[in-house]
Amino acid sequence: MDKVSGRLTVFFEDPFWIGVFERMWEGKLSVCKVTFGAEPKDYQVAEFIRKNYYRLRFSPAVEAKMKDAGQNPKRVQREVRKQMQGSGIGTKSQQALKLQQEQGKAQRRTADREQREMEKERKFALKQQKKKEKHRGR
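^ YjdF family protein, sequence as received from the core. Prediction below:
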């Protein structure tokens, strides 16, 4: 049986509040970063998840180990406290976000390159057409 787990970490990254959704499935981690703006209340976060979870664009999956859930409750409480004091997201999540960012950057670059080529071709065709119109009467 496959285990699926998810986690949302909300933290302040000047000047906005950021939410990082982590999704573990089949031993792979994928991440999505959401900017909330002002500090969200618990009910606002719950409503956001309910309405927008399936529209989130998660990063490509990265290999990660999945921990078993059978832990001591006090240990879990200590880990939660340590995460609350920590600076946001883990390194695997950062890697997944970086991968997503790089893929978006590559897509934008190819689209921009194609746009420049199309513009260049259009200008060249326009210049050729003007040249032909100049010499048509002679």
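The mean pLDDT is 83.
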